[in-house]
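Researcher: We're teaching a course module on how sequence relates to structure. For the next exercise, students receive a sequence and then see the predicted structure as tokens, so they can try to spot secondary structure elements on their own. Here is the exercise chain.
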Amino acid sequence: MKHNRRNFIQLSTLAAAPVLAGSSATAATNRQPNILLIVTDQQHADAIAALGNPHLTTPALDKLVKNGMSFRRSYTTNPVCSPARSSIFTGRTSSETGVYVNGITIRADIPNIGQWLGANGGYDCVYAGKWHLKKSYDDNIPGFRVLHTGIGGLGTVCDTAVSMSCASYILSRPKQTKPFFMVAAFMQPHDICEWLRHNTTVPDEFPYPSIRNDLPPLPDNFEFDRTEPQEISSRRNKIEGVKGNWTKEHWRYYRWSYYRHIEQLDGEVGRLLDALRMKQLDSNTLVIFTSDHGEGMGHHQMVRKSTPYDEAARVPMVVRLPGKVRQGADEKQKLVSGLDITPTICDYAGVKPPPHQRGFSMRPLLEGRPMPWRSHLVFEHNGDTGRTILTDHHKYSVYRKDPTGLLFDLKSDPLETRNLASDPAHADTIRRHRELIKAWEKSLDLDTERMPETAGWARKLA
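Model: And here is the predicted structure for the students to work with:
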């Protein structure tokens, strides 16, 4: 379906899409919480010590986990920076926002959450750090007052500037003022990309012998099923570990280095949480912590993003609001998505979400109220050429231009090491999953102007 161009003023008058039963969006009140959305770049979902990882130290993130609720089956909408961010800030899929690759602006008739809360919720909407829609660092973000754009492309430099500008805003606010919605968008642990570029060649001698005994082990799914789509195998053949013929020790060194980038990030997050506490705002501030996409970290001998494997597609999701959100809750079954962030923010802000939301408010889950929830979740990948669906038992990936798919039995093979897509015994399972993807695809208002081949999905799934 081809979309119609409308401006934001027109959109704000439309009736919003319904939320799941049990949601509590109401008219805005004077008791609206402040909202802090923290978005990291390229964070592996399990790269938090409190979630059971013994190979790093993350005191700030551990406090969020301890005092909030964590979701273990939280997925990006598209494991690439700009597409994922377009969904986080709109509640729409990347094929709808038109941001199917990096460096594209959100479709003009779809408001971002800053525009929406500013116009409908009375919030002071501020932003600091990476935007990446279109430019990575932009001082003109629709709907937001930009506190700091970040400095260059390295988190080691720009993230401190981001956290300090956010902390300064929090600490300098008058007591009696309207609530704030703040986005703190950090670059780390994305700096691992620079580490990879500088470490393609394995040195003759290990560079830091003193840390050799501290190197984390290789992941249990370091080896992988070779019957994977060419879209994945061709990407693997171009990465540093394969091109540089890394030793297993060097793969472990890369994993060790990645965790150090996470620890740098943790310090910046701690600065924000400390500012809330010092200003006595932590009891009335909803904090949502997530990432745009994951990181390969040597699983399936992959690095970075863009694949449907869990390491690239699954992301952290931790939410805290004292007195409302369950403390220390660890949700391991419910499927949540970057699509759920905008409707959740709107629910707590007391405003209807923007029209045509594809996600749902997580508030009932966060507060422990029984409610129906999604039985499956679809995300996009490889620009607009890949689709993956997750259900309770299976994960199925299909590509528009590649005859080879992926099917994993998540109960018997949670590490995704045995591809069952070519096994005739699973033909019915594949058929059912393709039908679910097809139905999901038909429900979307696709940006066919920027992605004219999107309509090809109906033919592919028939």
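Model: If you want an answer key for the exercise: The chain is about 30% helix and 15% strand. The domain at 379-461 is CATH 3.30.1120.10 (Arylsulfatase, C-terminal domain).
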